[in-house]
Amino acid sequence: MTDTPAAYDPAADRNDYGLKDKVAFVTGATSGLGRQFSLALARAGCHVVVSGRRRERLDALVREVEALGVRAMALPLDVNNTQAVRDAVVQAERTLGPIWVLVNNSGVALTKRIVDITPEDYDWLMDTNLKAAFFMAQSVARHMIDGKRQGRIINIASIGAFKPLGQGSIYSMSKAAVVQMTKAMALEWARYGINVNAICPGYIRTEMNADWFDSEIGQRQMQAFPRRRIGRDTDLNGLLLLLASEGSQFITGSAMVADDGQLLA
Ligand SMILES: NC(=O)c1ccc[n+]([C@@H]2O[C@H](COP(=O)([O-])OP(=O)(O)OC[C@H]3O[C@@H](n4cnc5c(N)ncnc54)[C@H](OP(=O)(O)O)[C@@H]3O)[C@@H](O)[C@H]2O)c1
Description:
Elements: E1 23-26, H1 32-43, E2 47-52, H2 55-66, E3 72-76, H3 82-96, E4 99-104, H4 119-146, E5 151-156, H5 169-189, E6 194-201, H6 210-214, H7 216-223, H8 237-244, E7 255-258
Parallel strand pairs: 1-2, 1-4, 2-3, 4-5, 5-6, 6-7
Helix pairs in contact: 1-2, 3-4, 4-5
The structure holds NADP nicotinamide-adenine-dinucleotide phosphate.
NADP nicotinamide-adenine-dinucleotide phosphate binds at residues 27-34, 52-54, 77-80, 105-109, 128, 156, 158, 201, 203-204, 206-209.
């Protein structure tokens, strides 16, 4: 008789991936993927700086992270404020210690036809998804380099980097640039032992797209994917932990697609 293996539950994964007592900084931790990345890193033993603009959500997450037996810090931050980003990194290191891994996750999306996009739309999206991610990574890497410390930077891109998403032109453009930024940073910082990689997720149900996938047209899109589903916010935790860990020492400059085969459809 063969035993049926229990379904894998990412929320119960207690492998520590060599991350015990390392410090992680997660942007966009107030919802969706960033919230789950924070919890996954905490379960693996990291002390976690959680950042985003919504203070009450950060405070609630800090309590959840601390309940996992590690230290946590809520850092309210608008990533579009470059000086605030620099200050946040200093403050985080003063409180929790040297950052080992940055998860550059905050981001926004816009569904609009190209003919309707305004310069304000363009700047808001590009600034948040690309410029802010650039200066966030720069700030953390400067500390790593000055402190002669190795580390990991994980940029959250999208499958939109490889295929323009419907009415998502500037979003897709921003994520393609995040992939190229990842490679440029990996190249420049290889000599310092800082590994920089991008995760390119397919559609995962979060606040960013829940309304869309609840709509009839969104449901039709989902039915066209090879597995007729979209992801759960915990589905990227395994890849995130691999890239955050020392075990990814030979991986840098990669843009890893995690999309359940959606790009194949
Ligand atoms: N869900 C998907 O299907 C999917 C697919 C591919 C890639 N992604 C990428 O995954 C990342 C996370 O998205 P998600 O799906 O988890 O969406 P989400 O639930 O909407 O989360 C976005 C996060 O970004 C933060 N954020 C936005 N603007 C910010 C700003 N100016 N300053 C600081 N934080 C800001 C938000 O926090 P506050 O509002 O509290 O500031 C929030 O925590 C994004 O980069 C997204 O592009 C998502």
